[in-house]
Amino acid sequence: MSIATPTSFPAAGPWPTATAPTVQNVAQLVHRLGDIPLHRVRTQPPPGAATVADAVECKARQNCLCELVDGVLVEKAMGYREGMIELAISEALRVYNRTTKLGIVTPASSMLQILPNLVRMPDVAFTFWSRFPQGKITDDPAPLLVPDLAVEVLSPSNTRREMQRKRAEYFAAGTQLVWMIDLDERTATVFTSPEQSSVLQASDVLSGGAVLPGFSLPLADVFAELDQHAPPTDEPPPISPRPND
Question: How far apart are CA 42 and CA 83, in angstroms?
Answer without folding.
Answer: 23
